[in-house]
Specification:
Shape: rod-shaped
Radius of gyration: 29 Å
Order of helices and strands: H
C-alpha cells in the first residue's frame, strides 16, 4: 500500500468515525427530546388529576356540610 492510499484509508476511517459519532449524538438528542415531551405530558396529566381531586374534595366538603 502506498502512503497516499494509506492516507486516504485513514481519512475515510476518520470520516466514518465522525459520522457515526454525529449519528449517536443525534440519537441521544432525539431520545432526550422524547423524554422531555413525555415528562411534559405526565406533568400535565398530574396537574389535571390534582384539579379533579380538589373538585371532588370540595364537593365532599359541601355534602358533609349539608349533612351536618
Amino acid at each position: 500500500m502506498s502512503l497516499t492510499s494509506i492516507d486516504l484509508a485513514l481519512e475515510r476511517h476518520e470520516e466514518r468515525r465522525t459520522e457515526a459519532e454525529h449519528a449517536r449524538r443525534a440519537g441521544r438528542v432525539a431520545a432526550a427530546a422524547r423524554l422531555q415531551r413525555r415528562a411534559t405530558r405526565l406533568a400535565l396529566r398530574a396537574e389535571r388529576a390534582t384539579v379533579r381531586a380538589e373538585r371532588v374534595a370540595a364537593r365532599a366538603r359541601v355534602a358533609v356540610a349539608r349533612v351536618i
